Input
Amino acid sequence: MKPKVGFFSFTSCEGCQLQVLNMEEQLLDIAGAIDLVTFREAMDPIDSDYDIAFVEGSISRESEITVLREMRRKADVVVALGACAASGCVNAIKNRFDSEENLREVYGDAARYYDTIDARPIDQVVNVDFYLRTCPITREEFARLFTSLLLARRPYDPNFAVCVECRMEENVCVYDMDAGEFCMGPVTRAGCGALCPTYGSSCIGCRGFMDQANFDSMVQVMQDHGMAREDAVNRLKMFNAALPEAEEVK
Amino acid sequence: MIGSKVVSKRAFDEMIQALAETSDVVAPVSRGYDRFSYREVKDASTLEVDGYIPTLNPPKKYFLPPEEVLVEFATEDEASVASGARVRAEPRIDACARVLLGVRTCDLKAIRQSDEAYKDTFEDDNYFARRNRATLIGLTCLEPCDEHAFCAAMGANDVEEGFDLLLTDWGDDWIVSVGSERGDDLLETLQSRAVTEDDRARWEVLQGKREEAFAPSAEKIVPDLDALPDLVGDSEDSAVWIENGDLCLGCGRCNLVCPTCFCFDVQDDVSLGLSSGERKRRWDGCTLLEFALVAGDENFRSDRKDRLRHKLYHKTRSTFDRYGEVFCTGCARCFRTCLVDIYHPEMYNALHERLGGES
Output
């Protein structure tokens, strides 16, 4: 029997759902392998149980907690779809400021109409089985996770630094160029193929931290290359302020 | 040892140009920022590049690519139904003839050591399909490439084997050592002359100069090369690992750029239709957290310091016991890529000193 699949969206730009819809040549294969029950970006909702729930977005309102918990009860497997759901993403920058002040700054007089809480990845509310990282997710990675689920295999989810993939690409390290780029590859989870450094930019940490990331050394490296300590800390927290490990970044 | 023949640089260059028309010729090419990579070239001009330091990735990338497909598999096609097999699997080996030009002696040594590892237990078809079609034209360094190289301490600034041809700069000429039949055949196509007594006298002078130039490189490591296996093997609980492990980013860069690191990981990628797929291998490294992770989520080296220690342990104790040699060439790629300046010679010296050795 085909698995029933739902796509859900919370606080996000919905770009990760779009990435799935962008898999044009493969959409028929995907649709053929599953029974699609809910897809906010593509169809009206159908109330149902789910074998697999792909959840996009961070949780930033009390009402979202209720919906997410309900969805978790109905789903066998929950997959965090993209950086917002997996690590909180840029939404969580707001957590570092006073909430009242944020509301006034953004909504002015209408602030009182908005219920808002610290933005958090979905695994701070419910159990999450698998993660698709990156802002936005890569189509290749979605395909790989999707087939792993259908085959009941543990998906490949690299837990090593972006530097690994950057060396495989044989890029000149941005720290060797001293071009004013401050790469966070050494503490960021790989899986993106070191996309940003390969195209002349530097890693901004959108895939979240790898386990056992050495933040003290990372901040020191950024300082050694001319970044103020405070800026280095801010940069490390840009996508990852909601992660518990972010507490270690000082 | 002095080479057997002398050929003019011009004639040699013409031979390379001709080779480049029929097969891949690769050599270290500048990437800017004082960094180099093996890239395709059309002539031998890169042999005399200024300021050369070992390439970002070592030439192992041509024998063990960062990622390669090992097996292609498919189900439910006509052939597999006819044969009664549920899955049809075909090995895939991508290989081509290739000339590696200007390979430094450190890398020649590393290639020879990799060859050992890849024919240990069984011969790795994919590795040797490429390796056996490669022609190695080495280049002798007249001085250390920079102040970090410790090749002389590892005995890798001179090699006697592991090349087809080995060149030494001789002004307008190259002195050429022949290391294989293939090298001999190549040299046959060139006009050359035998080395003369004059050449030998000049060679002795050159060797004296080289010895002087490499003295600092030889002194980078205080204990003897042969003492390293015991030194590292008996230092499991040393504070050296804690100090360096605290500093280490655990990013794995030192593994990936190491010419003698040969580990890989294997993963299957299955197509969306679930009817076909590929088994791939890609570079892996023992300093990475999940390298020693096994079923049941047990991790034999869950601390960064243990992984760093293991890396040196494997380069010294393990490879010495298995292959009779320390698997390090002193190329110092690990140091140049390290963002926190962890330097193997300093770790060896610190271990030596703490065990009461003379400094």
